[in-house]
Design a protein that fits this description.
- The chain folds into two domains: 204 residues, Rossmann fold; 192 residues, 3-Layer(aba) Sandwich (Rossmann fold), CATH 3.40.50.300.
- Helix 3 packs across helix 4.
- It starts with 9 loop residues before the first helix and ends with a helix.
- Helix content is 40%, strand content 12%.
- Strand 3, helix 5 and strand 4 form a beta-alpha-beta unit.
- The radius of gyration is 44 Å and the shape is flat.
- It is α/β, with parallel strands linked by helices and 520 residues long.
- Strands 3-4-2-5-6-1-7 form a seven-stranded parallel sheet, with helices on both faces.
């Protein structure tokens, strides 16, 4: 089948022709017609099969008619990482170059100002990571009630990164009448439940068994001791025809350590992990795509969806903790029908993870040996647990961190003398003669300690503690006695001046009137 038979618009077909593509991949062949019909789609396909184009191409045709309003995008695409969001934006620029669709990329690590300006002008396609989208929504810079097409890409990666609560919150802000496209490389039960909650009568499209690696990728595994993994990696890099390669580590801090180690041995290597500044991440990835960097030491931030044309090799410096991550990592090579090679460096403590990978891909990864390095064997689960408890798994727990002297990674100092030789060399060296007992300085006699004063009895200590209290009580009683003194104060109170104590004569009583008249 050809792209022209899928029902895409002429301008989209012209952009596909300019890109040099004529035949769609299986996921594109099955998904694009249903998307053009307006149906919800649940797509499951292994990484590297063209899932991005299966929704970008029909979306451009659907959004060709209509006009976006300020702060009200017409479509929304959620991506788990900034690199994936930028890659989808590049796909829209490539396939939509003959259209006048506006697009905005909302990712962390960049200023809000330019992103808000784009939203104010109105955008047809909004590509965002969940965190930055929620930030702008809470600021009132964006409204989601005009979304016509909603896409959740790499849903299983969203689950692993803990974005599901954010996605549920975003979906609650979207209009009920919309078209939802749900794409994932794997379909665990949690993703199935989310699809049932978000999609309405979806058309399910599955083109490959979940979590199955591409047949175009040649896989191999090297089983060595933990301290020999760097040597094994350098041997593979020198003996293999490596055009460019991803080298995956489980821990972010180990990425920088391994990158510096490779540079010290003359390799052209860069680093990429989630703690880097966004501008530095984009700059490093762009330099790798242009061929300015040959080896990219990275964390799992580069394991999903990144499309680097012609990636020849993938090296797993650490066996991935999750078996699904192994499929995604090696899926960076062998894309679009090309051949690729993937090597995994395992230590004796990785037996459990390797077994899980074998059960998932339903095959065993072939073991290869490296000349000059001692081959190891996987420990049983109990032995590995005991080894970690005794400290033998410390290097495994913190990646490939080596002792301080080895961290310098100088090629001329890498090979160290065995412990027996060092001990013999130390024994041959003459020891300094110790001074005889007579020549040793005589110590000064210790001065006798002063006699300790007898300790006070508890009664004496208690009596001393009560003295301040007794003084306070005595003063309080004295003041009370002074207040209750009955001695009169001169000029006040009960004292009476002498002039007021003199007796006064009383006037004689008046005689009655009748008696006086008889006398007259």
């Amino acid at each position: 089948m050809l792209f022209s038979e899928l029902g895409l618009g002429p301008d989209v077909l012209r952009a596909i022709e300019d890109k040099g593509y004529t035949q769609p991949t299986p996921i594109q062949e099955q998904a694009i017609p249903w998307v053009l019909q307006g149906r919800d789609v649940l797509g499951c396909a292994q990484t590297g099969t063209g899932k991005t184009a299966s929704f970008t191409l029909p979306m451009i045709s659907i959004l060709a008619s209509g006009r976006a309003r300020a702060r009200m995008p017409r479509s929304l695409i959620l991506e788990p990482t900034r690199e994936l969001a930028a890659q989808v934006a590049e796909s829209f620029e490539t396939y939509g170059k003959h259209h006048k669709l506006s697009m905005a990329l909302l990712i962390g690590g960049e200023t809000f100002t330019e992103q808000v300006k784009r939203l104010d002008r109105g955008v047809d396609v909004l590509i965002a990571t969940p965190g930055r989208l929620i930030d702008l929504f809470e600021r009132g810079n964006i409204m989601l009630n005009d979304i016509k097409v909603f896409v959740i890409d790499e849903a299983d990666r969203m689950l692993d990164m803990g974005f599901i609560p954010d996605i549920e919150r975003i979906v609650s802000k979207l209009p009920k009448l919309r078209q939802t496209l749900f794409f994932s490389a794997t379909m665990p039960p949690e993703i199935r439940r989310l699809a049932d909650a978000f999609l309405s009568n979806p058309k399910e499209v599955t083109v490959a068994p979940p979590a199955s690696p591409s047949e175009t990728v040649t896989q191999a595994m090297v089983l060595v001791h933990e301290e020999d993994k760097r040597k094994a990696l350098r041997h593979l890099l020198r003996t293999e025809d490596v055009k460019n390669a991803f080298i995956f580590c489980n821990r972010k801090r180990d990425v920088a350590i391994l990158q510096k180690s490779l540079e010290s041995h003359g390799f052209n290597a860069g680093a990429l992990h989630g703690d880097m500044v966004q501008s530095k991440r984009m700059e490093t990835l762009e330099a790798f795509k242009k061929g300015e960097i040959t080896l990219l030491v990275c964390s799992d931030v580069a394991a999903r969806g990144l499309d680097v044309q012609g990636l020849s090799h993938v090296f797993n410096f650490d066996v991935p903790i999750s078996a699904e991550d192994y499929v995604h990592r090696i899926g960076r090579t062998g894309r679009a029908g090309r051949s690729g090679r993937a090597f995994t460096l395992a230590s004796p403590l990785d037996g459990k993870q390797v077994s899980a990978i074998g059960r998932l891909i339903k095959r065993e990864i072939p073991l290869i040996a490296i000349d000059g390095l001692e081959s190891a064997e996987f420990l049983s689960e109990d032995e590995a647990r005991r080894g970690r408890s005794r400290g033998r798994g410390k290097d495994k727990e913190r990646g490939d961190r080596a002792p301080r002297a080895e961290r310098a990674e100088r090629p001329d100092r890498e090979e160290r003398a065995p412990r027996e030789e060092r001990q013999a060399r130390e024994e041959r060296q003459p020891r300094e003669e110790r001074p005889s007992r007579e020549d040793r300085p005589v110590r000064e006699e210790r001065q006798p300690r002063e006699e300790r004063q007898p300790r006070e009895s508890l009664a004496a200590v208690e009596n001393r503690r009560q003295e301040p209290r007794r003084d306070r009580d005595r003063d309080r009683r004295r003041r009370r006695d002074e207040d209750e003194d009955d001695t009169p104060v001169i000029g006040f109170g009960d004292h009476m001046p002498a002039f007021m104590l003199r007796s006064a004569r009383r006037p004689a009583p008046a005689e009655p009137a009748e008696q006086s008249s008889q006398e007259g």
